[in-house]
Amino acid sequence: MSVAAPAPAASADPPETPAAPPRTRRPWRAHVTMGVVSVALAVYVTSGLWSDPYRHVLSDNVGDQAFFEWLLGYGVYTLQHGSDPFFTELLNAPLGVNLAANTSITVYTVLFSPLTHLAGPQLSFVTLLTLNLSGAAMVWYLFLRRWLVTSPLAAGVAGLFCGFAPGFVSHANGHLNWSAGWVAPVVLWRVLKLREEGRWLRNGLLLGVTLAVGFSIAAEGLFFTAIASGVFLGVWSLARPVREEAKAAFTTVLRALGVAAAVAGTLLSYPLYMHFAGPQSFSGTGFNQRYFVEDAAAYLSFPSRSLAGLLGLHSDLAPNRTEETSFFGVPLLMLIVVVFVVLWRRAAPGRQATLRAVGVTGLVFLVLSWGPRFNWMGAELNIPLPYALLAHLPLFDSALPLRYALALVGVFGVLLALIVQELVSDRITSVNLRTGLISALVVSLLPLVPLPLRIQERAAEPDFIADGTWQRYVSDNGVLTALPFALNVQADGQRWQSYTMARGGPQFRIPSGYFLGPQTTGEEGRKQIGRIGAPPLATDWLFTRAALYGYVTQLTDADREQARSDFAYWGVEAVFLAEEITGSDHMTLYRGAVEATARDLLGEPEQVDDVLVWRIRPGVDPVDR
């Protein structure tokens, strides 16, 4: 996800005149200031959700917010029932969902289960999202101060950039995994500690635990961090000025890595088994790796949720607004090139080794983000790229290429910290150069100041669910579904299920849902390719088509017979239709078409509280449980 910071001590520049100022004697004052600024900016970005967390939803990604709220509710259910945190039968009845192969954020769901139980997944979601953004900025600040610069201002500017870079603000649209930008600097911190003499066991243990936690929260980001660390340390270690230093640390680092591998392997043995070989596991991803690539022109563009975007200077070169992973803009890219040249010319050989490693790491992730074919201004050109050779390898086949661009946030953050350190320490004596660099910093970073995330109203939880009336229509742990069936663009049924899990007590299962799973429902003797959601059957497609397009089918007896077969496969005992259904990005869903389809297919409903209910299995009587 980002790169390792420069190695300390021996590979740093020797003192020059004037000497770099000593670290402040009151670091906690700077730390508190940075913490307050980070939290304030994070609350500002998420303010739309905070204004009404129970009725507001992120309009650019309704589905992912529903999925992560579901996971938070499942955390309460897991602790209450002792259920498997990496596999559930509550979604996708009757097959279930492999949560290890999805983003299960298990550490978050457990730690925040008290808040989820008391205040609901909605409040836990916005709290975690806010802490992710502010925590990323704060941890990057601490990391840079520890390993790179002495100036609080230098570390603060770079930390705020890393925490609120366009890609991470974009991923704040629903992604509790990718918005956790603090994972990378924590892992990198532990990696850089591995070289300490006499502490290989302790440091190896701590790194192993860190890796296990990071895997739970952001497995794909952890994979990127591992690649970045390997590239950086490999390039740095081969540089002649630091080669002997690297050799001296090799044995200690190797021992620590062995301990880390043993600890992480032990802690992750079951989730890794479930991820790669467990029930309902799959290979690859449900997303097209040729589509989710970084358009090279996107690097030159500004993001939609920024001051530049507010002025209409953004572009639509991302697959969607949640995946604006680069969008740094021309001024910042030009500044980074100039900063690299300035720092290189002023650096001693040891620091040049660090800069070379940072630069190579950035170039590697830049090329990886372009995917298997080069894209420019929305068009895929017939220019093959290195990722075409990696796309089918394990782990690489599960990653989306455009997200590799997020690693450049760490690269740019390192360079920004170094140049601000040079400016505040008065080591750049040329008035013209100082003025030019300060002006360029303002011009480059000001347009990227984030705006609040876009929100919309979502359907309120029906009294039928909130009051527990649903229990009269479903047997214990039976299957109940809202209409239309839960999907990424119509996720009400899934999030309402999460609310019942968070409250504790009896629970129902649902067919379908928003998740990643195998392509088909049957076993084919080999691992299947991933897809989004369950393979649709004829009956759920009737309701989905009605909701999305307002299409009402002229049903036949064959359709009704197919519906009986499909409902029997799912084990559905009852279905219900709420007064309102929520679509993504202010999408209008055609509730009237859904009701007309249900009446034609299932007959007249019962009006129960504020929903229409159709009982599917006559053997299940509406009695209190």
Strand content range: 5-15%
User: Which blocks of ≥5 consecutive residues have pLDDT under 50?
Assistant: 1-21, 619-625
Integer-rounded radius of gyration: 26 Å
What portion of residues is helical? 40-55%
Q: Compute the number of strand runs.
A: 12
How far apart are the termini?
50 Å
| Bulk shape | elongated
Major β-sheet annotation: 4 strands, mixed
Main sheet strand line-up: 7-10-12-11
Q: How many domains would you count in the coordinates?
A: 2
Which class best fits the helix and strand makeup? Answer: alpha+beta
Mean pLDDT: 92
Task: Draw up the topology in text.
Blueprint: H1 27-45, H2 47-50, E1 56-58, H3 62-81, E2 87-88, E3 97-98, H4 106-111, H5 113-119, H6 121-147, H7 152-163, H8 166-171, H9 183-192, H10 200-238, H11 243-267, H12 269-277, H13 307-310, H14 330-346, H15 349-369, E4 373-376, E5 379-384, H16 387-390, H17 407-424, H18 431-445, E6 455-457, H19 463-466, E7 479-482, H20 492-503, E8 516-518, E9 530-532, H21 538-549, H22 557-570, E10 572-578, H23 591-602, E11 606-608, E12 611-615
Parallel strand pairs: 7-10
Antiparallel strand pairs: 1-6, 2-3, 4-5, 8-9, 10-12, 11-12
Structure, explained:
The chain has 625 residues and is of the alpha+beta class. It folds into 2 domains: 120-448, no CATH class; 461-615, no CATH class. The chain is built from 23 helices and 12 strands. The chain has helices spanning 27-45, 47-50, 62-81, 106-111, 113-119, 121-147, 152-163, 166-171, 183-192, 200-238, 243-267, 269-277, 307-310, 330-346, 349-369, 387-390, 407-424, 431-445, 463-466, 492-503, 538-549, 557-570, 591-602; strands at residues 56-58, 87-88, 97-98, 373-376, 379-384, 455-457, 479-482, 516-518, 530-532, 572-578, 606-608, 611-615. The radius of gyration is 26 Å and the shape is elongated.
